[in-house]
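Hello again,

I reread your note about wanting to compare the complex against the isolated chains. To keep things tidy I'm splitting this into two emails, and this first one only covers the full assembly. Below are the input lines as submitted, including protein chains and any nucleic acid or small-molecule components. They are followed by the predicted structure of everything together. The single-chain runs will come separately.
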Amino acid sequence: MKEGICSIQSQFDVDLKECQSAKSVEALKVHYLGRKGLVQDQLKNLRHVPDAEKPAAGKMVNDLKEYIEGRLDSALQECILREENSRLAQESIDITLPGRKNPIGSKHPITDILDEMVDIFVQMGFSVQSAPEVETEYYNFDVLNMGEDHPARDMQDTFYVAPGVVLRTHASNVQGRIMETTNPPIRVICPGRCFRNESISSRSHVFFHQIDGLYVDVDVSLQDLIATLTQFIRAFFKKEVDVKIRPSYFPFVEPGIEVDISCHLCDGKGCRLCKHSGWLEILGAGMVHPQVLRNVGLDPEKYSGYAWGLGIERMICLRHGIADIRLFAENDMRFLRQFPAP
Ligand code: PHE
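Full-complex prediction:
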């Protein structure tokens, strides 16, 4: 038996030397230590050994087993390490390269400023409503006292999507929708995109943004309107801005006003943005016309209200010193990157 064990061990040494891969080491393991392997055979042979010699013979087989196990383990480790190293060498990753950065986006300046303005109005007690950008003529015009023959309905100003359906020309389309469905007091703002068929220039574009406001209750006055707007302008610019209020005309308000603020892009001296006047018109407003109240089923004897429509683009121009509103629509990264995420 002793010879048998010795020859298994020396055969194993020869076999192991030939093993070059983890796979062949595994195969060798099965061959020697597996259930039908050579070591197992030796264990079975112990049955035929006389009792007196059994302990010594058993120890020999055990020693052989431990020897083979030990050598196989270290051979396996070596092979795995060698294979891993050669794989890494082939992949040749340059671990000194800096990692790729995920570019971080930021809000478009228009969205950013809309959010800021909405916050101010919400603090003043207005709630935010939305109205469709694709709108019926009824809510864009008729309910707002703009009869069929009103010049604003001319094809030159309005994009028609289908007969009777337009791209809203102002955010005032929210007014009829809200007043029809809500009982006063109503105090809402409607921020959003509007469309007009205008020629594109540094001061006007085919789409732009407005925040419309509407307040309907008993005893609402023009003074309330002016106070609200002045307060808003101060809160937004965080400094004293000269405000000029001019009488104006919109079919859905009476009286109507327009509000100009001093152009601090040029400090009132005159520039492209303010058409060299030193003043920028930023909004139209007025007291809700009694006919509009009647159109939505509210009694003008009982209720009064004010409404405004504020243009966003010019406010952003003033805030950031931008003299051309076309930049907002061009998606030029050199422009947009100047408004990084806070
Ligand atoms: N909707 C008007 C415009 O776009 C502005 C406006 C709103 C005027 C509300 C009066 C009242 O020009």
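For quick reference: The chain has two domains: 2-90, 109-336.

B.
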